[in-house]
Amino acid sequence: xxxxxxxxxxxxxxxxxxxxxxxxxxxxxxxxxxxxxxxxxxxxxxxxxxxxxxxxxxxxxxxxxxxxxxxxxxxxxxxxxxxxxxxxxxxxxxxxxxxxxxxxxxx
Length: 107
Known about the structure:
This protein is α+β, with helices and mostly antiparallel strands. It has one domain (3-106). Helix content is 44%, strand content 26%. It is built from three helices and five strands. It has helices spanning 3-20, 66-80, 93-106, and strands at 26-29, 33-39, 46-53, 59-65, 88-89. It has a five-stranded antiparallel beta sheet. A hairpin with a 3-residue loop joins strand 1 and strand 2. It is globular and about 35 Å long.
């Protein structure tokens, strides 16, 4: 396991915990990746999108204007997610811990 993959998994855990503490937010996991989207300011004008890919440990994170974040959320739900059978959404603490555990194991 590469150091970079470990580092990226740790950073994604930080992002997931940050997103969990903000409402509204979306945290989900498929067999291939973990995805999170959440507002970073009180006005909800700027959002952060982060994703971690299990296979290569690639981490992508960026801040976006709210309108663009909403468009990406719609794209994720309409295009990406239907191709996966196993999807875990952090709708409660148990699911959140399941996602974090998978990230810890992958790093």
